[in-house]
Write a structure and sequence with these properties.
Layout (H helix, E strand, L loop, with lengths): L1 E9 L2 H12 L3 E2 L4 E5 L4 E11 L15
Antiparallel strand pairs: 1-4, 2-4, 3-4
InterPro entries: DUF1737 (IPR013619)
Protein name: DUF1737 domain-containing protein
Organism: Rhizobium herbae
Length: about 70
């Protein structure tokens, strides 16, 4: 099965650590990062899509993406 996640965080080291952790668990970057201004918090937010192929398993809506 192919899994997809969209990681988000404030534009600081937290975001970089979140993406780095996913890469070290076998996820791969998918596309370019995205940025948006959060008017309520007045902070820049980052997002990055990641994908991962998992052999021998079938996707269901109950699949826990964080477990892969």
């Amino acid at each position: 099965m192919k899994l997809y996640r969209f990681l988000t965080a404030v534009d600081d080291a937290t975001f970089c650590h979140k993406v780095t952790a996913a890469l070290n668990k076998g996820w791969e970057l998918h596309g370019s990062p995205a940025y948006t201004w959060n008017q309520e918090t007045r902070m820049l937010m980052c997002g990055q899509a990641v994908v991962k192929d998992v052999e021998g398993k079938e996707y269901t809506p109950d699949t826990k993406l964080s477990e892969h």
